Amino acid sequence: MIEVRRLVKTFGLKTVLRGLDFRAVPGEFVALLGPNGAGKTTMLRILASLSRPTLGEVRVAGYSLPGQASEVRRLLGVVSHQPLLYGELTAEENLRFYARMYGLTDGASRALQALESVGLTARRRDLVRQFSRGMQQRLAIGRALLHDPQVMLLDEPYTGLDQDASAMLDELLRHVAAGGRTVVMTSHDLPRAADLATRIDVLSRGVIAASVPQAEITSTGLIELYRKVTHD
To answer: What are the two backbone dihedrals, phi and then psi, of residue 57, each rounded to the nearest 5 degrees?
Structure first.
């Protein structure tokens, strides 16, 4: 579903990604870990066609980026640490607006389905500015699911969430992944990544320095591996 080969990204004289290789198969949930500045967000922005690679090959579902960005965007659901919703609209109005942006002909029913999937049906007529940070993030995931994407890209989706909201998001992401989508999520929370993902990749110094199936490592083992590959 996702294939990245020898990816390089530079900003002026600074090289952030240094010949990175990455792949994810359909139905896989990959947690992308790494220290600040390792290039996690840069990589996700390239996969989301929001940034152009300097060198290398990037393919999503067989489509090449950046040349076939419009085809790729139809396959993606993207969630960042900023919900990017309209506070003066209700939850349902937000989703119906984005449904029109996606060109969906059944936007009203899709909006209701998305609200149900993220547990916000009872709040569908409430203004988003009245929502807690956790509820806004759940609605942002509902928006990303509107067009039934094959790939979900999540950049630090737990930022600013309290314990209860984080637990709700855990269950929601399990539901999303169980639907057969390919999920790539950046995170600083190693135990949560070990619990949610089917594979953990550690990004360090612009490359994937370690990649391990979740079933083959414990939380303690992951912490030790992370320290080793990011400090060596």
So the answer is: -120, 130
Other Cβ atoms within 10 Å of 78 Cβ, number: 21
DSSP for 152-168 reads EEEESTTTT--HHHHHH
Domain boundaries, the chain: 2-75+150-231, 83-148
Contact between 95 and 79 under an 8 Å Cβ cutoff? The reply is no
Return the number of other C-beta atoms located less than 10 Å from residue 68's C-beta: 15
Burial annotation 95-132 (CB, 10 A radius, 16+ → b, else e): bbebbeeeebeebeebbebbbebbebeebbeeebeebe
What is the rounded CA–CA span in Å between residue 231 and residue 53?
Answer: 27
Residue 228 makes CB contacts below 8 A (sequence gap 6+) with: none
- pLDDT of residue 232 exceeding 90: no
Q: Reply yes or no on domain 2-75+150-231 having CATH 3.40.50.300.
A: yes
Give the SS3 label for residue 190. helix
At residue 117, the pLDDT reads 87
Residues 51-100: pLDDT tens digits? 999 999 999 999 999 999 999 999 999 998 888 899 999 999 999 999 99
Which pLDDT score is estimated for 198?
A: 95
- Euclidean distance between CA atoms 6 and 202, whole angstroms: 16
Query: Interior CA angle at 106 toward 102 and 109, to 5°?
Result: 110
Question: Which two structure tokens, joined as six digits, stand for 175?
Answer: 């539901």
